[in-house]
Amino acid sequence: MDNYIEQFTIYLKLERGVAENTLVNYLYDLEKLQQFLGDENDFLKVQETDIRNFIYFLADFLAPATQARILSSLNHFYSFLILQTLIENNPVTFIELPKQAQKLPIVLSVHEIDLLLSCINFNTLEGVRNDAIIETMYSCGLRVSEVISLKLSDLFFDEGFIKVNGKGSKQRFVPIASSAIKKINHYVKNIRTQIKIKQEAEDVLFLNRRGAQLTRAMIFTILKDLAKLSGINKNISPHTLRHSFATHLLENGADLRSIQLMLGHESITTTEVYLHLDRQKLKQEVEKFHPWNNK
């Protein structure tokens, strides 16, 4: 059994190019199934009823979203076994995903983003850097992992684009606003030059005070501190800026396919959550301003 698990791992790494965290999740989910089945059971002998019983078991202590992720992992695994002619049928094929209540993402208004930026202390080196980071994330809709890994060699300002290294090592080119270009150039020329940069971080754009690449946790802290100073009573995170980017584009007339490409979503269905946000806002506007609603 270990042999085809090993083959599946190689397949995910080399042919699918999945990220390390995704790979760990796949293998962890297979381990959960093996624990449920018992050591005497073989993955190759698993039937649809076994998978159903496994999901019923998980439902007692795991959220629907986690159950759905595990089913997705198992589906990829058994599809791989079919490709290897080790089995004929995928036992996951006809199992429905657990129903999930759609949780709409938290979004900041343009005024709230301006408010965040207004609370930055520009008398510090970190303040100028933080201003450039937030402007870049909001201007380009970047994930936190994408902004901390952004490199000087990824900046194509003459063309008005940056190269982004997204999930699964997939690259995309994203337009960048002139305001973000201006702030990045100011940071690079006047702040970054004052830092003693570590050798491994020479091409990294945004650095900490010790000249190393910033961590994800540091970006979270920066935003949480600014939210507290600004008085914004929302549970915001770096992803909030990404959600705000997409929502504001949609509100101003951008088409969903363009937003999908800029965000680097593999499926258009992932991007469609912003349609729900847009409809929710329209509903609120009708409820607020329609004359009959004031009766």
UniProtKB/TrEMBL annotation:
GO cellular component: cytoplasm
Alphabetic keyword roster: Cell cycle, Cell division, Chromosome partition, Cytoplasm, DNA integration, DNA recombination, DNA-binding
Keyword Transmembrane helix appears in the UniProt entry: no
Primary localisation category: cytoplasm
A Pfam family this chain is assigned to: Phage_integrase
Residue ranges constituting the Tyr recombinase domain according to the UniProt record: 103-287
Active-site residues, as the UniProt record annotates them: 143, 167, 239, 242, 265, 274
Cell compartment(s), UniProt: Cytoplasm
MF terms (GO), sorted A to Z: DNA binding; tyrosine-based site-specific recombinase activity
Gene3D superfamilies xref list: 1.10.150.130, Intergrase catalytic core
Signal peptide: none
UniProt keyword Transport, yes or no: no
SUPFAM superfamilies referenced in this protein's UniProt entry, alphabetically: DNA breaking-rejoining enzymes (SSF56349)
InterPro entries: CB, DNA_brk_join_enz, Integrase-like_cat_sf, Integrase_catalytic, Integrase_recombinase_N, Integrase_SAM-like_N, Recomb_XerD, Tyrosine_recombinase_XerC/XerD
Biological processes per GO annotation: cell division; chromosome segregation; DNA transposition
Domain Core-binding (CB): 1-82
Subunit structure: Forms a cyclic heterotetrameric complex composed of two molecules of XerC and two molecules of XerD.
Protein role: Site-specific tyrosine recombinase, which acts by catalyzing the cutting and rejoining of the recombining DNA molecules. The XerC-XerD complex is essential to convert dimers of the bacterial chromosome into monomers to permit their segregation at cell division. It also contributes to the segregational stability of plasmids.
Stated family: Belongs to the 'phage' integrase family. XerD subfamily. Belongs to the 'phage' integrase family. XerC subfamily.
Protein name (Swiss-Prot/TrEMBL): Tyrosine recombinase XerC
Lineage: Bacteria, Pseudomonadati, Bacteroidota, Flavobacteriia, Flavobacteriales
